[in-house]
Amino acid sequence: MKNGFRRFIGAATLVGSMMTVSPGQAEEAKPAQPAQEKAADGKTVQERNVEIVLAMWDGVIRKGDKEAALRYVSPDYIQHNVNMPSGRDALLRLADIVKNTPPDFPVPGHKTVLKTVAQGDYVVVIWNQPQPDPNEPGKTYVGQAFDMFRLENGIIVEHWDDTRKSAKPWMEYVAPKR
Fold first, then answer.
1. pLDDT tens, 9-19?
2. Which residues touch 42 (CB under 8 Å, ≥6 apart)?
3. Running DSSP on this structure, what letter comes out for residue 167?
4. Exposure winner among 64, 88, 125, 137, fewest CB in 10 A?
5. Most confident of 102-106, 134-138, 151-155
6. Bigger pLDDT: 123 vs 25
7. Counting beta carbons within 10 angstroms of the beta carbon of residue 145, is it exposed (0 to 12), middle (13 to 18) or buried (19 or more)?
């Protein structure tokens, strides 16, 4: 638990450190620009990590492609979403749900990328996502959501997001079949 908490604190510190502020100018915060080494293909590690995260998201979450989970996600993937268990096998089962969605599965609103931020082994994706309007039942409004991933050697090993508990946790849909 201590290592998970340390990683979370490290990740939270990372998000905070992505902005630099001059004294007295908090309203004019500017992104930090750490030195970035480029690989032979001309891309930085951060650029490649963003591509990996978005390719995984498109493959697994949008298309239900199990090959994307196998290619981009570690077997020991750590999941911090309260509705999903850890492990790549859960994403493989989620891919099945995406392809054959059960009638009672609470399909989240389609996320569209608003911004990506990458530093070191971390990638944060900020999305626009339709949310149910609590004041006007049946209507939605566009809100923002985030997902943060940690990669090791080009493989996604950990994930955090802003998901809240579902009435019926997704784990019930992706629990191993007996």
1. 444 444 444 43
2. none
3. S
4. 137
5. 151-155
6. 123
7. middle
Q: Note the pTM of the prediction, 2 decimals.
A: 0.73
At 110, list the tokens: 């389609």
CA dist 157 and 151 (Å) reads 5
Tell me how far apart the alpha carbons of residues 169 and 45 are, in angstroms, rounded to a whole number.
35
Residue 82 amino acid letter:
V
Domains of the chain (ranges, CATH numbers): 42-174 (3.10.450.50)
Helix or strand holding residue 69 (H, E): helix 66-72
CB 111 within 8 A of CB 127: yes
Structure tokens at 154: 């080009």
* Number of helical (H) and strand (E) elements in the chain, helices listed first: 5, 7
